[in-house]
Design a protein that fits this description.
Distance between the termini: 41 Å
Largest sheet: 4 strands, mixed
Shape: globular
Number of helices: 9
Strand content: 15-25%
Structural class: alpha/beta
Mean pLDDT: 86
Order of helices and strands: EEHEHEHEEHEEHEHEHEHEHEE
Low-confidence stretches: 1-17, 302-307, 309-315
Strand order of the largest sheet: 1-2-3-4
Helix content: 25-40%
C-alpha cells in the first residue's frame, strides 16, 4: 500500500500550452467540519499562513498546517503557536490545483538545492492508486522503474484522460530513447510541454543529448528549466543560450535559499539580485527572441505584460 501523500505540492509550478486550472500560489486553505487546513508550499508564504491561522482560531476553529515550507524552516515558526503541525494529508496537491496528481514520491538524484531527497527520500515510493488527472507532478518520471512508467501511461489510457503537463518532468541522465518512445504519444496527444532541467554544467552532456533527441518536437513545447545563480554568470548564460540554440525554450529559475522567508533570489558568485531578476525576465518573457541580453532594457515594460510569480513568467 502506498504511503499517504505529504501535505505538499511540487516546487516547479506548471505553465502548460493548454488552458489548465490555476495553482493557488503556494498556500492552500480548506475546511472540513470544524477544522481549517493550511498547506504551505513556500517558506515566504508562512507569515500569510500564520495570519490565516490566527483568523480561523479566533473563530473557534481547529487549525492544522503542513507542507514543505514547515519542513524547511528548522526554527519553529510562530504558526506553530496557533496551528497543529501535520506532515501528511491525502491528495493535498489537488487543493493547490484540482487538475494535479502525483503517482510517485522521492528522487534518487539528490541535487543539493532540492528539498525532495530530504523530505521524500532518495528511494521512490510508488502510489499506484493515484487519481488520474491532466497535470502529473512526479519529481523524476524517467528514473522510475520502466514497468511503473508504463503503468502510469496505461492508467491515463484506460481513464481516457489526456496528460497535458508532466510538470516536474524528466531527468536528463535517465532520459533514454526507450523513455522517449514510451512517453511520446501520451505527451504529444496531450499537447503539453516536454520538461526537463539543465541545472549546471556538470550535466551538459546529458542535457544536450536530450535536446538533440527531442529535435523533431516543436520548440514551443520543449520547456527546459534553467537554474541561474548557482554558477557564475557566464556559465549560466551559456546554458540558457545552448537551450535556445538547440531549438528549445528556457524557463529560467533564479537560485533561492530553500528556507527564504521573502520571495527574493539569493546572489552568489558574480551575480546581483537585480541581474538575477533581469535575466529571468529577459528569458521568461521571451525577450531573447527579439534581442540579446546585452541589449535588453529592464526599464521598458509592455502595457500588456503581467508577471505571474507562481509561474515565474511574464504573461
Amino acid at each position: 500500500m502506498p504511503r499517504v501523500h505529504p501535505l505538499t505540492i511540487p516546487q516547479n509550478p506548471t505553465r502548460g500550452l493548454i488552458a489548465l486550472a490555476k495553482w493557488v500560489g503556494g498556500l492552500a486553505e480548506w475546511e472540513d467540519g470544524e477544522t481549517t487546513y493550511l498547506s504551505i508550499a513556500f517558506t515566504w508564504k508562512l507569515d500569510e499562513a500564520w495570519s490565516r491561522a490566527q483568523f480561523a482560531r479566533a473563530q473557534g476553529r481547529r487549525v492544522i498546517a503542513g507542507g514543505p515550507a514547515l519542513f524547511l524552516v528548522k526554527m519553529q515558526h510562530q504558526i506553530a503557536d496557533v496551528a497543529e503541525i501535520q506532515s501528511t494529508y491525502p491528495d493535498a496537491v489537488a487543493r493547490h490545483n484540482p487538475e494535479a496528481t502525483i503517482a510517485s514520491r522521492g528522487c534518487p538524484v539528490g541535487c543539493w538545492f532540492c528539498i525532495v531527497p530530504a523530505m521524500e527520500g532518495k528511494d521512490f515510493t510508488l502510489l499506484p492508486e493515484f487519481p488520474v488527472r491532466p497535470i502529473l507532478c512526479d519529481n523524476n518520471l524517467s528514473a522510475l522503474p520502466a514497468d511503473y512508467q508504463q503503468y502510469i501511461i496505461d492508467r491515463y489510457r484506460d481513464a481516457g484522460v489526456k496528460l497535458k503537463d508532466a510538470n516536474s518532468g524528466f531527468e536528463p541522465r535517465t532520459f533514454t530513447p526507450d523513455v522517449y518512445d514510451r512517453w511520446r504519444s501520451l505527451i504529444n496527444e496531450g499537447r503539453g510541454p516536454w520538461r526537463f532541467a539543465y541545472d549546471d554544467m556538470q550535466e551538459r552532456e546529458e542535457a544536450l543529448r536530450v535536446m538533440t533527441m527531442l529535435s523533431d518536437e516543436p520548440a514551443r513545447r520543449k520547456r527546459v528549466y534553467v537554474l541561474i545563480g548557482n554558477e557564475p554568470f557566464a556559465e549560466c548564460m551559456q546554458r540558457i543560450h545552448e537551450v535556445i540554440d538547440h531549438g528549445c525554450e528556457p524557463h529560467v529559475q533564479p537560485f533561492m535559499k530553500l528556507n527564504a522567508l521573502h520571495r527574493e533570489p539569493h546572489a552568489r558568485h558574480d551575480w546581483t539580485i537585480q541581474k538575477l531578476r533581469d535575466v529571468a525576465r529577459w528569458a521568461n518573457g521571451w525577450v531573447w527572441k527579439r534581442a540579446p541580453f546585452e541589449e535588453y532594457e529592464p526599464s521598458r515594460r509592455s502595457s500588456q505584460e503581467r508577471y505571474d510569480e507562481q509561474q515565474g513568467l511574464f504573461v
